[in-house]
Amino acid sequence: MTAVWAPRAGRVRLRVLDETGGTREERALVPAQDDGCAGWWHGDVRLREGDRYGYLLGDDERLRPDPRSRWQPDGVHEASAFFDPRAFAWTDGSWHGRPLAGAVISEVHIGTFTPEGTLDSAIERLDHLADLGVTHVELLPVNAFNGAWNWGYDGVLWYAVHAGYGGPHAYQRFVDAAHARGLAVIQDVVYNHLGPSGNYLPEFGPYLREGSRNTWGDSIDLDQPAVRSFIVENALMWLRDHHVDGLRLDAVHALHDTQPTHILKELAERVDALSAQQGRPLTLIAESDLNDPTLILPREAGGYGLTAQWSDDWHHAVHVALTGETNGYYADFAAPDALGKVTRGGFFHDGTFSTFRGRPHGAPIPAEVPAWRLVTFAQDHDQIGNRAVGDRLSAALSPDRLAVAAVLVLTAPGTPMLFMGEEWGASTPWQFFTAHPEPELGRATAEGRIAEFARMGWDPDIVPDPQDPQTFVRSHLDWGEVAAPPHDRLLALHRELIALRRSCPELTDPATSTHEVTLVVDGGPARRAWRIGRGGLEVLVNLTAEPVSFPVPPGHEVLLSTRSPERDGEALALGPDSAAIVRSGRADPS
Predict the structure, then answer these.
(1) Quick one: pLDDT at residue 455?
(2) What per-residue confidence (pLDDT) applies to 590?
(3) Is the pLDDT of residue 211 over 80?
(4) Would you call 361 helix, strand, or coil by DSSP?
(5) In angstroms, rounded to a whole number, what is the distance separating the alpha carbons of residues 437 and 431?
(6) What is the phi/psi pair of residue 30, to 5°?
(7) How many CB atoms lie within 10 A of CB 231?
(8) Radius of gyration of the chain (CA)
């Protein structure tokens, strides 16, 4: 049985193509008679694996892809191909999933993770992540978009896997291979807008809300029950049919929902039900600009019941501490208490005045909320790629300061996340790249990007052209760096820190009441030293240009240091740009 929601069409035909692209079969679909299925069209047509097909709307003879297409082998403007998700021979029968509590995430863009930029080639690098100690691989969006390469946020067919990555068959192979190595897979999904090229959904029905726009285009019309179902069933597809372990929900603040039950709450309810049925944890992580704890509060407490949300505030505080940058939205995070506040409470703006926004922003997270419900990071795709030249921290910081960044990320109370290559201090940038085939769209994208950075004070001459293929090429990881100094030492440190995080319960303790932060030296942004208490552990951080002495009795054990500290009686002296992790009550081996 074939079904499609197309309330804007006076009639709908399903056309199946033969091997030459001609018509093999054409069938008129019948409108549903049930009032609860208004706008749906049905037909008794059976498709075989790989059959090319599409819909003809009204009297238009132009073939349109299936809005719920799983496979677009020839691109988003061409016919869909039938894909049977049940045909794959899964080998992960003993996989019972991984909870987010205690996790370490690696964020990966398939197109630039390997030279080939495919899911199958990414499988060959999964052992690297498993050996590092990563527990979850988070993939940037893989839904079908127009053009050869893209960040993935311009998707127009949410159910399909981009053909350039290998399509749905390769995706299932990737997830199966990840599970075989003990790695959970989180898929980034975009439900707040549709891309600018290849979006035929509005020809079928009112997927977009007229007169309502967000940063990226027209808003999704969440007042339509069929559109809400389109989103919920897409989420369940990734988790059920592709065995994915969680979803990262992009920019949920751009979801304009006026219904009594918010779409995020509806998603959480349905995903929790699937989790109970399948007997494995299924994770929903929100990206939100709202600093609103409602997203992660239990539904019994009036929240939406999502598993976690990203904390940009934690990133901003750490970025300022490491780099000293205080322009734009970083300005407020130059405050001496910024790092301490995000360590203890998760949000810096928890109702306080945001100078960047010009108004009070956010709300406090209740103390009972476990710390791991915030995903924290020093680098991610946005914070790198949305800089003028896509420069990583490695472009500005010394190897010693990168080592301190690793300590801060991997001893943080939240769930730590690394951006691909961060673990070895990758020298390659990660820039904003597109491959729009339409010249006018490509030109508008490039000009808009340059104008955006010019308004922020960046030199427009340094902003790479997103349409230049070299912008994409430059953004690929260089795996040849991994074994070369100083990258090898930073990689070893990340591996040691992740192992320490797993062996020391204090570092994954969800209780925020155990977090104490003392500012030891305040020389201004990027010139400070802290003592961060994590239960029985202390993280000592010196980001000044001089040695700093921390009171540490001889009975304390130094578990890890980025540079050898010096013992001075009752104190431990840390050199510039260094950090150490100390446990109380044990003999110091030195």
Answers:
(1) 66
(2) 41
(3) no
(4) strand
(5) 19
(6) -110, 135
(7) 19
(8) 25
3-state SS, residue 447: helix
Given 221, 250, 422, 481, which residue is catalytic? 250
> Under a CB-based contact definition with an 8 Å cutoff, are residues 4 and 28 in contact?
no
Instruction: Report the 10 Å Cβ neighbour count for 585.
Output: 9
- What b-and-e string marks burial along 244-253, b requiring 16 or more CB atoms within 10 Å of the CB? bbbbbbbbbb
308 touches 100 (CB < 8 A): yes
CA dist 160 and 313 (Å) reads 33
Tell me how far apart the alpha carbons of residues 146 and 364 are, in angstroms, rounded to a whole number: 41
**Other CB atoms within 10 Å distance of the CB of residue 290:** 14
Cα 248 off chain centre by: 6
Catalytic residue among 66, 107, 221, 287: 287
Contact 190, 158 (CB under 8 A): yes
Q: Provide the 3-class DSSP secondary structure of residue 508.
A: helix
Residue carrying structure tokens 């000293």: 324
Which distant-in-sequence residues (6+ apart) come within 8 Å of 389 by Cβ? 429, 431, 462, 463, 464
Q: What is the pLDDT of residues 449-459, one digit of tens each?
A: 888 777 667 78
Closest CA relative to residue 122, chosen from 138, 144, 145: 138
pTM listed for this prediction: 0.96
Q: Which two tokens stand for residue 272?
A: 């929790």
d(CA 197, CA 146) in angstroms, rounded, equals 6
Closest by CA position to 529, among listed 514, 538, 537, 540: 540
pLDDT per position as a tens digit, 243-276: 999 999 999 999 999 999 999 999 999 999 999 9
Tokens of 82: 């039938």
Beta pairing, strands 136-139 & 143-144: unpaired
pLDDT at 195: 93
Q: d(Cα 563, Cα 479) in Å, to the nearest integer?
A: 26
Single-letter amino acid code for the residue at 12: V
The pLDDT value recorded for residue 589 is: 41
Tokens of residue 246, six digits:
């969680």
What does the buried/exposed string (b/e) look like for 438-473 if buried means 16 or more CB atoms within 10 Å of the residue's CB?
A: eeebbeebbeebbeebeeeebeeeebbbbbbeebbe
CA distances from 534 to 160, 315, 562 (A): 44, 19, 18
Instruction: For 8-24, give one letter per residue: b (16+ CB within 10 A) or e.
Output: ebeebbbbbbeeeeeee
| 127 belongs to the catalytic site | no
Percent of the chain with pLDDT over 70: 98
Q: Does 250 participate in catalysis according to the annotation?
A: yes
Q: Secondary structure of 547-576 in the HEC alphabet?
A: CEEEECCCCCEEEEECCCCEEECCEEEECC
Query: Minimal CA–CA distance to 329: which of 287, 289, 365?
Result: 289
User: What are the counts of helices (DSSP H) followed by strands (DSSP E) for the chain?
Assistant: 14, 29
- Given a cut of 50, whether residue 460 has pLDDT beyond it is yes
Q: Largest Cα–Cα distance of the chain, in whole Å? A: 88
